[in-house]
Design a protein that fits this description.
Layout: H1 2-44, E1 47-56, H2 58-65, H3 71-78, E2 81-87, E3 97-104, E4 107-115, E5 118-122, H4 125-131, H5 136-140, H6 150-153, E6 158-161, H7 176-194, E7 197-201, E8 204-213, H8 214-228, E9 244-252, E10 255-262, E11 274-281, E12 293-294, H9 309-316
Parallel strand pairs: 6-12
Antiparallel strand pairs: 1-2, 1-11, 2-3, 3-4, 4-5, 5-6, 7-8, 8-9, 9-10, 10-11
Helix pairs in contact: 2-3, 7-8
Amino acid sequence: MRVLLAGGIAGVAAIALAGGCAAQQFQALEPKLELRNAAQQLADAQQAGFTLTVTGNPKDLVAAAGPGADAESVGKLFASSVTLAYDKGGPGADDDKSSLAATVDGVTGTEVRFVDGLVYAKAPVSELAAKFGATPAEVKELSGGTSEFDAFFAGKWVSIDTKSLGAGAATPTTGPDQQKALAEFTTSATNLLEGADIERDSADDKHLIVTSSTAEAYAEAKRFATAVEPSLAAQFKKAPADKPIVLDLWIDKGKLTAAELNVLQFAEGATGRVAARVEVGTPQAIEAPTGATELDLSTMPYFGGGASLSELEKLGE
């Protein structure tokens, strides 16, 4: 009887120990599974939107940059943001749509949309010109002075046929080269996450702390660059000193909502926190604006007309 009792106790202890080990393994693995699922869900999304900002204390970035850092320019960076969005539409790339909206040093209203083979754009030209020390008249010289561009300089929507932009211009569709680059980038990002340590913040269960290293990041950057353009391999001559890299991610209800990378962790002796932050927003419809004025790029600089290169250089001085 005692033997049976002892055996039972030993069996229960073994099961409890095994269960505890399994629980610990699952606890360590669970954040990585959650992140993998959230990343896959985002990759499969037909629509998505991202806002890029810089957060933290501008003084910390100025201090890290050292003597000669332009505090005014740094302040403008913190007052700016970019929002990118896309809509894959149905099968194929012909009906793909995308948009880019920017806030420049607190000035909103700059936006570009790619819809049905046309580029739509608008910007608060007068306000932006004033921010960078130019007058509207000086900026208008870039158009060759033709009245056709009055709508754009008045901050209204204009449209441009992508066929007039040339083969190398951005379009709403994705060619083979861009598709390959996106696929390779996804592979590198996946490799980095798979090899990283991922922990859940005990104070915030939506916050995941991902720790990788400069060596791993360098290896993946080299792999990515070489896969996209083999000639770039020669640029990777010496790996940097190995040190930890921390990436902060937030996942809510299975969806990736934000990511932050503290850029000061790459600066020796830097203190504080200045982060490049990406927020994943709710997808919005991307439509062609009504009443856009069609532009003829043949009168624009670099497209066969308008101001010369020397005039542009004088304007920038």
